[in-house]
């Protein structure tokens, strides 16, 4: 396996491909694309679930998703820092809170 | 055209792809978090140092006229014998055999048999000598235990020994002053005749050069008399002296320890990595300042100082003093080691800052809870007036006891209080949010909630666990990195 990895590094352009200065923006562009796709699909999901959306509902849904994103990223940042217990606790407490908030938001979107 | 009933239409495709995209984006959040957390690039001081990139915290909104140390009386200079390392040096000269002669004093002879000024000091500080004796007993145990641990800590020992290799002996750098400061500090000064454009230009130039020499943080302040210990002067010896007139300004520099070894305290590394970096920085800075036409004297660790560093660094706007007595900076937390160059070069001084570190220390107490020697005060607020300043007292003899007790790669070392300090964190997005938000919150609620999370979510081994068996289990705050673990690289 190590031999294969070493050979990969010898391929022309491979180091450029994994270079963080190029991969970082590529990664975030890809993430942006995935999020656009997600929200485009969400329109259909809401429509098919007979949920009528308006600007403030979209704002709440977007905020919830953003918060969930931050909670997951924060928890895994702590895990990456070798503070595994802190990361797991963070995910359990704030991830749980996000699930409860998500359920509440779903009810709100359906009723109003 | 009619849609075929079993074909995936565009709408269904987007619905399913969107769900997968949403899940992938959340997985991406986890991945980005893992990378941000584990990335060594976010260890401040071991990357973009040379261009000043380590000093990333915006201090401007937090500049204050009055430093955060609490002056309550007439400041006094630290007497020679009150400096722990000078006192230790005096005692060691008495208690250890030199040149084949018998030791001149033993603990059994008691305080009264000590020469002055040791006798007066220990009479005024009952218990301190007994604590020192206890530390020496732990040191003897540590030396006996070392064969048990030497394989496990071989790499840590080699790492420390390499960093300590030029602290003394023929290859030591920088050279120590020779003769009175009025001669020594001017030796090699270049008579350029060039006039500096302004003090502001001088400060900007010196800071850039200091960063290029490896300083993570640089600040400049005037030298106050109260920060110059009395009774000993390098190049002269034991003497009472007035602060030399040409010690007008201090260029204060700070660097961190290598972060992974620092977190694996107390057994995987010593302070010498930061010490060696500091010695090179201020040694070179001394030469640089002299070559552009001004007097200079470098002050560097472990003991080559004529300055008390933490208050000087507070004056220079680098940070605030923590409960553990160590300077805490927004960038490096308590993982901050200090050195300085005194000079008569015209410089523009920095202002002290107040970012709420001292207020946080009032509540936190994690360092006191984790200190293996119990040297750090648990008082809710700084409670003792020491030489005209109200502060927390550090029991130096107790602190030194832990140095000798823990199974360090090199006897005499413990930096647990640096490792467990909540401010000693990486430069990544999650901690940068705290760095920006906390000092701007006038209510203190943000700091309180951060502290509550710190105490609930994070795990600490507990004070005794850092000690070797039978008192503890040689625990470290975080696990040692692979590159310091002997078993990763060598067969037993």
Kindly summarize this structure in a few lines:
The complex is a heterodimer of chains A (112) and B (492). With 112 residues, chain A is mainly α.
Keywords:
heterodimer; A: 112 residues; 2 domains; flat; B: 492 residues; alpha+beta; 3-stranded antiparallel sheet; 11 strands
How does this model look, in words?
The complex is a heterodimer of chains A (112) and B (492). Chain A has 112 residues and is mainly alpha-helical. Chain A has five helices and no strands. Chain A has two domains: 1-50; 52-112. In chain A, helix 4 packs antiparallel against helix 5. Chain A is flat and about 60 Å long. In chain B, helix 4 packs parallel to helix 13 and helix 5 packs parallel to helix 9 (272-291). In chain B, the strands form four sheets. Chain B has a four-stranded antiparallel β-sheet with strand order 2-5-9-6, with helices on both faces. A three-stranded antiparallel β-sheet of chain B has the order 1-11-10, with no helix packed on it. Chain B is 38% helix and 9% strand. Chains A and B meet through helix 3, helix 4 and helix 5 of A and helix 1 and helix 16 of B.
Q: Between the first and last Cα atoms of chain A, what is the distance in angstroms?
A: 57 Å
Relative strand content of chain A: under 5%
**Helicity range of the residues of chain B?**
25-40%
| Oligomer designation | heterodimer
- Cα(first) to Cα(last) distance of chain B is 76 Å
Biggest sheet of chain A, open or closed, and with what strands and sense?
Answer: none
Query: Which two protein chains have the largest interface (Cβ within 8 Å of the partner's Cβ), and how many residues from each?
Result: A-B, 37 and 36 residues
| Overall geometric form of chain A | flat
- Taken together, the total number of domains of chain B comes to 1
Would you report the number of β strands of chain A?
A: 0
Question: Quick one: how many beta strands of chain B?
Answer: 11
Largest sheet of chain B: 4 strands, antiparallel
Which class do the helix and strand fractions of chain A yield?
A: mainly alpha
């Amino acid at each position: 396996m190590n031999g294969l990895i070493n050979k990969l590094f010898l391929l022309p352009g491979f180091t450029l491909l994994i270079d963080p200065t190029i991969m970082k923006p590529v990664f975030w562009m890809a993430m942006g694309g995935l999020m656009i796709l997600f929200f485009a699909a969400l329109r259909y999901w809401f429509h098919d679930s007979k949920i009528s959306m308006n600007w403030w509902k979209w704002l709440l849904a977007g905020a919830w998703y953003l918060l969930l994103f931050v909670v997951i990223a924060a928890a895994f940042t702590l895990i990456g820092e070798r503070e595994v217990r802190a990361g797991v606790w963070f995910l359990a407490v704030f991830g749980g809170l996000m699930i409860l908030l998500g359920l509440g938001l779903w009810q709100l979107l359906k009723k109003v | 055209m009619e849609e075929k009933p079993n074909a995936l239409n565009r709408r269904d495709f987007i619905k399913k792809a969107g769900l997968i995209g949403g899940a992938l984006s959340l997985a991406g959040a986890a991945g980005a978090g893992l990378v941000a957390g584990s990335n060594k690039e976010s260890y401040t001081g071991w990357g973009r140092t040379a261009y000043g990139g380590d000093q990333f915290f915006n201090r401007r909104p937090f500049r204050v006229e009055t430093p955060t140390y609490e002056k309550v009386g007439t400041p006094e200079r630290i007497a020679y014998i009150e400096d722990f390392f000078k006192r230790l040096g005096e005692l060691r000269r008495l208690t250890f055999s030199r040149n084949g002669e018998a030791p001149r004093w033993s603990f059994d002879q008691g305080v009264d048999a000590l020469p002055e000024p040791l006798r007066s000091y220990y009479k005024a500080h009952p218990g301190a000598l007994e604590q020192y004796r206890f530390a020496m007993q732990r040191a003897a145990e540590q030396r006996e235990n070392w064969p048990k641990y030497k394989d496990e800590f071989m790499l840590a020992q080699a790492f420390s020994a390499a960093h300590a290799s030029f602290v003394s002996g023929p290859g030591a750098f920088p050279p120590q002053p020779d003769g009175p400061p009025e001669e020594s500090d001017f030796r090699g000064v270049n008579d350029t005749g060039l006039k500096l454009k302004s003090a502001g230009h001088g400060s900007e130039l010196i800071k850039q050069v200091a960063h290029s020499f490896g300083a993570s943080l640089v600040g400049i302040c005037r030298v106050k008399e109260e920060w110059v210990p009395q009774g000993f002067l390098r190049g002269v010896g034991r003497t009472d002296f007035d602060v030399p007139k040409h010690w007008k300004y201090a260029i204060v520099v700070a660097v961190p320890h290598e972060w992974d070894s620092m977190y694996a305290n107390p057994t995987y590394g010593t302070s010498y990595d930061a010490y060696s970096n500091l010695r090179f920085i201020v040694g070179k800075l001394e030469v640089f300042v002299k070559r552009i036409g001004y007097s200079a004297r470098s002050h560097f660790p472990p003991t080559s100082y004529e300055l008390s560093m933490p208050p000087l660094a507070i004056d220079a706007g680098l940070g605030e003093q923590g409960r553990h007595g160590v300077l805490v900076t927004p960038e490096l937390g308590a993982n901050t080691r200090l050195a300085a160059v005194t000079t008569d070069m015209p410089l523009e001084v920095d202002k002290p800052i107040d970012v709420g570190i001292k207020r946080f220390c009032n509540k936190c107490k994690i360092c006191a809870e984790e200190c293996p020697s119990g040297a750090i005060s648990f008082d809710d607020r700084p409670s003792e007036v020491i030489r005209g300043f109200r502060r927390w007292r550090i029991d130096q003899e107790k602190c030194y006891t832990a140095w000798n007790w823990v199974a360090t790669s090199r006897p005499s070392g413990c930096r647990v209080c640096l490792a467990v300090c909540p401010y000693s964190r990486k430069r990544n997005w999650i901690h940068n949010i705290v760095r920006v938000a906390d000092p701007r919150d006038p209510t203190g609620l943000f700091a309180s909630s951060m502290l509550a999370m710190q105490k609930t979510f994070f795990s600490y081994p507990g004070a005794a666990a850092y000690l070797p068996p039978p008192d503890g289990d040689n625990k470290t705050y975080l696990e040692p990195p692979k590159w310091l673990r002997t078993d990763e690289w060598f067969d037993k």
